[in-house]
Amino acid sequence: MCYPKVTQPTHARWEEVSPEETDVPPLVRQKYLVVDSFFQQPPFAGLGLPGPDANFIDVGTNGLLELDDEDHQNMKPEEREAFAFAKQEEVEWRSQWGGDITDGARAQPRIGFVGVPV
User: What pLDDT digit, counting tens, does each position of 24-51 carry?
Assistant: First the structure.
């Protein structure tokens, strides 16, 4: 079953829990990573994927569109102010996330002499 993109969970973040915040025994912490999950939604629907590489990953429009000067001039002052506020919210939402390399915690693959990962 397919759901629309705006109804899907957006992003999750896993952060290591410090030993003072949990009652997990030290022996368990030596062998396992104890994490806490944070699920975040954008401030309003339609902002798309966050992060600097989101436009590359997402298909179609990703977030609020850039407007031409003519469109800006045709807007009423309160509409211009609301649009500027929404754009600022989008910038703040995207700036909370890094790229896939930093936040994805993926190792860089080693490429062999024949051009395939080894």
Answer: 898 999 999 898 887 777 777 777 677 7
Partner residues linked to 14 by β-bridges: 37
Nearest 5 degrees, angle CA 83-CA 5-CA 94? 45
CA distance 63 to 37: 25
Condensed to tens digits (0 to 9), the pLDDT of residues 90-117 reads 888 888 877 666 666 666 767 777 777 6
Token pair of 34 as six digits:
């104890």
First to last CA, the chain: 36
Measuring CA to CA, which residue among 103, 100, 97 is closest to residue 40?
97
Residue ranges per domain, the chain? 1-41, 46-101
Q: Which residue has the higher pLDDT, 67 or 10?
A: 67
Neighbours of 46 (CB within 10 A): 13
In contact, 61 and 17? CB cutoff 8 Å: no
Query: pTM here?
Result: 0.60
